[in-house]
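FIELD: query
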Amino acid sequence: MKYIRLVKGSILFTMSLLLVTANAQEMSVIKNKNIVIIKKLIEEQSQGRIQKPLALARVIFRECQKHRLDPLLVLAVMERESSFRVKAVSQKGAIGLMQIMPPTGRMIAKSANLFDPLQNTKIGIYYLKILKKRFKQNKILYLTAYNMGPNRLNSLRNEFATLQFRYAKSVLKSHRKFKARQAHLMKYFVAEISH
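FIELD: result
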């Protein structure tokens, strides 16, 4: 009787282990599918300006998961900020893909190379997370703050200045474009897997 229970228990344990393994593999496929799609979007939009699109896609996916941000929103910010130019420098001194100001970069990561696309992206995503929390998840506000700085935005809001939010609206338009393209790529990805 004890032997039968032990066998039943080990069968149930084995079945549970198989289910956990299957779920882990399924999650791995989903994760990889998302990374592949982000990579494809980077390749399409950067027109060859990104040397390691897969590495960048992995960083975007991982950091966005960690900080609860939409990877497609990050791509939209990159497109608007630098047009996916790694060495971009603005007139005001913002650097790299996510156009990080050096003081912001030092505040987040003491010794970061803002021209390194992976470090720049990590800092930009972390900064978006800070702003998202500060502006209570209001996309228009935290995207505007990303562009003009949170203190300047608050100052203008306190002065009752008429804000157009052009930058945020432009990023959100780009975000919608990325979402539509992602949906198309997902259909293609599913068709490829089923064959």
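FIELD: remark
The chain has one domain: 2-194.
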